[in-house]
């Protein structure tokens, strides 16, 4: 025991912060290995996104913007999979573009998860979806693609000509029925500026959590038509389409992670308040 | 369920490298973190070069072959950009940089005034009462927040009287906003973490590798710290 004795408040204010990481690992991995199935509610935002996607009809062509890298995909995965299940089921045609160079590694990962669904609806590459690849790395590229689609893209990501496919119907961004953007980055603002604003094409966004406040302002301003928020939104969409997946499975971990943060905030504040008050008392009276 | 050898190897190595990176949270340098970090940098650089070349091929060379000859000028500008790495002639790269900055500015300015200003202002100045009480509450909150927070940022006059109250309310509303943004940021970061953890614990065959990799990396970080080898062997 130290000379001053154990001070609980001091410990609460100054404990080793690495314990937070240890607890975070435990509270996240535990529920993922043994899910509890805690209930979730469906927000109005997700309901609107679902209605937006669900309003598409067979043969509609969607500009499917995979504007994410691997880490972002991990967060957006539930929304990406659930949205594509709706597209496949409805027979919507997809023009898939990447806004990040890591995006080119994603199709095998995504389509492996959707394989049984694609087989069930006989959904095939080139007939129902075409991957045009990494074509929207910056604003100039997005503006050019929006203005003259075939002037920029003549081949798919494997070098096969896209002439003679359903993309023949596309001349500019205004010919897409919807832009659906899964986003961690900048290309979203470029698409809003050069595809939505200039051609009036509706745009739905599936965004990582940190970008949601910014996209809410765009939703409020009518620049995007609907917004799916992070893993939570993906989980809600899985619930709406009746296809439980990685999102619903992650919700327990999310809930416990948030509780953990609240507990640590309370501990830290009580500790700091108690410790600083005692320090002031010691300074005033000289009594330890 | 049978797992292919390639998938198995990639998954297990991926899980191990991830936890090597996570040892940075231990707060002390160690060689396994350096190894993972440099592997990631090398792989990322390699992939970006290949994808960059692929982009040039698909959007420039293919289109030039199809008769879009103006793109030859783009290629020349691109080559001029490479002079940046050669100090004697790096002034050559200034032209393509100036060109791309100019194009970028022109493209942004044409639309940013609408997306970031006019449409946002339009969305703020709306009818408060639409017959739906909750919508009234949202719109009223936005209107009050915008007015009071703007009054907080009045710098060219003395803030007294009603303006003082307004700016004080604006200040506290900003604190509320910062709290909401922090919570949203935490949710977002937790989302990245939970998403990745979900990926390395599903399907169930990955779970033992995840738990074992976490334990091995934690023990290694402690050993490197206690023996003093971490500082000596880690790079940078």
How does this model look, in words?
The complex is a heterodimer of chains A (about 290) and B (about 240). Chain A contains 12 helices and 6 strands. Chain A has about 290 residues and is an alpha/beta fold. Chain B is mostly helical. Chain B contains 8 helices and no strands. The longest helix of chain B is centred in the last third of the chain and has 38 residues.
SSE layout and pairings?
The complex is a heterodimer of chains A (288) and B (236).
Chain A: H1 8-14, H2 18-33, H3 44-54, E1 61-67, H4 70-90, E2 93-98, H5 106-113, H6 115-120, E3 129-134, H7 139-147, H8 149-152, E4 178-183, H9 187-199, E5 203-207, H10 212-220, E6 226-229, H11 230-241, H12 246-285
Parallel strand pairs in A: 1-2, 1-4, 2-3, 4-5, 5-6
Chain B: H1 5-22, H2 31-65, H3 71-81, H4 94-124, H5 133-152, H6 162-199, H7 207-227, H8 229-233
What is this entry, summarized?
The complex is a heterodimer of chains A (288) and B (236). Chain A has 288 residues and is an alpha/beta fold.
Keywords:
heterodimer; A: 288 residues; alpha/beta; Rossmann fold; 6-stranded parallel β-sheet; 12 helices; 6 strands; 54% helix; B: 236 residues; mainly alpha; 8 helices; 76% helix
């Amino acid at each position: 025991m130290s000379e001053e004795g154990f001070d609980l408040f001091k410990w609460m204010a100054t404990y080793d912060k690495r314990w937070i990481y240890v607890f975070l690992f435990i509270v996240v991995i535990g529920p993922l290995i043994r899910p509890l199935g805690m209930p979730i509610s469906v927000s109005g935002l997700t309901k609107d996104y679902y209605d937006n996607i669900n309003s598409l009809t067979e043969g509609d062509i969607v500009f499917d913007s995979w504007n994410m890298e691997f880490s972002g995909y991990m967060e957006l995965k539930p929304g990406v999979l659930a949205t594509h299940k709706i597209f496949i089921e409805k027979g919507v045609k997809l023009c898939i573009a990447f806004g990040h160079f890591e995006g080119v590694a994603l199709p095998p990962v995504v389509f492996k998860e959707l394989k049984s669904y694609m087989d069930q609806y006989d959904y095939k590459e080139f007939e129902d979806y075409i991957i045009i690849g990494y074509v929207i790395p910056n604003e100039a590229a997005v503006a050019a693609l929006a203005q003259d689609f075939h002037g920029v893209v003549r081949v798919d990501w494997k070098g096969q000509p896209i002439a003679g496919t359903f993309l023949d119907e596309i001349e500019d961004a205004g010919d897409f029925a919807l832009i659906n953007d899964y986003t961690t980055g900048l290309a979203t603002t470029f698409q809003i500026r050069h595809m939505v604003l200039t051609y009036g094409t509706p745009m739905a966004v599936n965004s990582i959590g940190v970008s949601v406040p910014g996209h809410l302002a765009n939703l409020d301003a009518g620049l995007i038509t609907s917004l799916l928020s992070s893993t939570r939104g993906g989980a809600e969409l899985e619930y709406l389409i009746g296809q439980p997946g990685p999102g619903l499975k992650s919700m327990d971990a999310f809930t416990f992670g948030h509780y953990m943060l609240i507990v640590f905030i309370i501990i830290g504040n009580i500790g700091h308040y108690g410790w600083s008050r005692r320090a002031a008392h010691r300074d005033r009276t000289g009594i330890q | 369920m049978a797992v292919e050898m390639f998938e198995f190897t990639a998954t297990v190595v991926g899980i191990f490298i991830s936890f090597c990176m996570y040892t940075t949270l231990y707060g002390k340098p160690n060689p396994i973190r350096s190894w993972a970090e440099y592997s990631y940098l090398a792989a990322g650089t390699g992939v970006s070069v290949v994808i960059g070349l692929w982009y040039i091929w698909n959007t420039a060379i293919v289109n030039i072959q199809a008769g879009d000859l103006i793109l030859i000028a783009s290629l020349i500008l691109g080559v001029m950009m490479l002079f940046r790495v050669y100090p004697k002639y790096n002034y050559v790269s200034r032209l393509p940089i100036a060109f791309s900055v100019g194009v970028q500015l022109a493209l942004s300015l044409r639309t940013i005034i609408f997306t970031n200003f006019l449409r946002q202002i339009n969305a703020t100045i709306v009818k408060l009462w639409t017959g739906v009480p909750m919508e009234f509450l949202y719109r009223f909150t936005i209107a009050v927040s915008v007015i009071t927070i703007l009054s907080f940022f009045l710098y060219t006059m003395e803030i007294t009287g009603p303006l003082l109250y307004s700016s004080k309310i604006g200040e506290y509303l900003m604190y509320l906003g910062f709290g909401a943004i922090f919570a949203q940021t935490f949710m977002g970061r937790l989302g990245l973490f939970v998403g990745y953890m979900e990926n390395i614990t599903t399907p169930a065959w990955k779970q033992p590798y995840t738990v074992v990799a976490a334990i091995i990396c934690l023990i290694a970080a402690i050993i490197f710290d206690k023996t003093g080898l971490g500082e000596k062997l880690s790079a940078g």
